[in-house]
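Amino Acid Chain and Its Fold in Token Form
===========================================
Purpose: to set a sequence beside its fold so the mapping can be learned.
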Amino acid sequence: TAAPNQTVLITDIVGERGLATASNFRVDFTVTSIAGRVVPFGILIDDATGDGLFEPAGNPAPTGDDVIVTQASFAHGNNDTFFKTNLYVTNVAATPVTVTVSLIPRLVSGTPAPPRIYTLGAGQTLAKPDVLNTEFDLLDPSAAGLRIHPSAPAQLVVSTRTFVEKFGGTFGFFIPGLSTSSQGVLALGTGRVATIQLDQSSAATGSRSNFGIAEIGGVDVLVRVTAKSGDTGAVLGSKSYFVSANTSVQNSVTDIIGSGAFATNIYLQFELEGGAGKILAYGVAVDNTSGDAIYVPAQREP
């Protein structure tokens, strides 16, 4: 029970319900009162490191749209980190669905396996650990987005967990899947921009940041990325990036503000300059000490 405008946190949902250890389960939320609305979420906490991973709940309507995850990894990073990605696809409908999972390549090592086809029963969650290596045969270093295509209108909740193993446990982040018609998608001619807040620092307590762009509409695009000061709004740098159809790119923030430059309060704005494609933009801030990465989806202006 939640009072008006109250947040209720249920700690250790499995233990609170007296359930046994479970490695693959989901939690459904239903409002049973006459009035009221909720925004559900979950937090996965690593037992060794204490790292908490936030994941918003999904409430998809039946649709034939593809679902996009902008970034997945199988690659070494700085400071002896190695990033891997697990994929989760849940069919919340009452009927089975067949999905095709394909790559939105950015950096590919090895010979990629063809798109994978899976059939999910009603209520089933498909879990694919280390998906780029185990399902697509990619080698280090590799990075790519993922496209989940349903064979018919479906209700899919999609997410990935990208993580590094360190200090006896893990650090990482979830990425929620977004439909190709979601509000986060940018297209030419709308006059809209998408924005993310990031930091760029070499301090042990600071973060180094990257940004990425995934083209999901099947047409080449040119994207202008502008870095601005969070304190003053002043432009710190601006650069255009060409993104081929159905591929993705990723760069360090220093590619815009200059090598060796540091800024602890900046934001990036993305705007399409050319091409009839569509994009999803994101940022990743990586802790300089732990390797813990935080995924930040770009938010489109209304």
